[in-house]
């Protein structure tokens, strides 16, 4: 079976917004998921690298300067190659950009990489709630960075009043329409919003995904508790019937902004496209990864949706309406219609 490509997530945000704090949080709460981190410090002393040292499975630091100013991408390529080699058994790579980096340049380098083991996994932009206005006045490019993000983390929520936070959320939503804005303190976002977490191998009792409840318990202990994630909901969908690709794409295109994360796999059963299509959506970011089904694997669709303020029933009904068996008979439409897959294939990677 083809090896799954390793998503490379870019973690950006202005100086001091809380990127390293968030990365450390991901490292300590992602269960058995092996995270490879590329830390890109601005300056010659690798503070960030030191701050995450000891917590990371594999870490390479680009050191001394801004990644986006690199003359070519060969340096980053080399680091990604090291982390993506199968022996490293890394599940996800996080590139922490320096606070002064241009995220789109880093994204361009990742997209240009010829390494077949990796795939771009989206941009997470960390915003400092307390400094937003001052930073924006000095660095208008911040608006552009927020505009291209797949997920905006409104960090340091503990430093502003509720009303100010709500107003910031509205303004961020205006800058990035349709992109989820997740308030957080000390970078405490659910890692599942960014990537799939594996259970921790060294805990016999932890043969399950890290749940929101687990996170609540972990956070209660250290005084920086952020209970915002208590509002998260997760909705599951399972179907043995194949899914109609056009209907599913319409459903995905219209997904509500509060639906931060969708993961799972889809069975379309369309002629020529009977593979397993793993689906990975983080905010605006959407990808299908195509791979053969294992011989013993039942051909079925299984999706988990995680969000805040989402209408679980409407989502379930929306997906139900995408099953082939639930469609009204329409002329010319059937699982033999390979053209119906075009919308999906635009987002697909094998
Ligand atoms: N009050 C508060 N402080 C925070 C929060 N998140 C991070 N900090 C603090 O803010 C400071 C900067 O955090 P870092 O995680 O180093 O920020 P960074 O974005 O990696 O910084 P650069 O590497 O300079 O770009 C540290 O002192 C953190 O402890 C938060 O949510 N609330």
From TrEMBL:
Protein name as catalogued: G3E family GTPase
Superkingdom of the organism of origin: Bacteria
Reactions performed catalytically: GTP + H2O = GDP + phosphate + H(+)
Residues in CobW C-terminal domain copies: 232-323
Stated family: Belongs to the SIMIBI class G3E GTPase family. ZNG1 subfamily.
A Pfam family recorded for this sequence: cobW
Keyword terms, alphabetized: Chaperone, Hydrolase, Nucleotide-binding
GO CC annotation, single: cytoplasm
GO MF: hydrolase activity; nucleotide binding
Gene3D superfamilies according to UniProt: CobW-like, C-terminal domain, P-loop containing nucleotide triphosphate hydrolases
Species the sequence originates in: Streptomyces olivoverticillatus
CDD domains membership: CobW-like (cd03112)
SMART domains according to UniProt: CobW_C
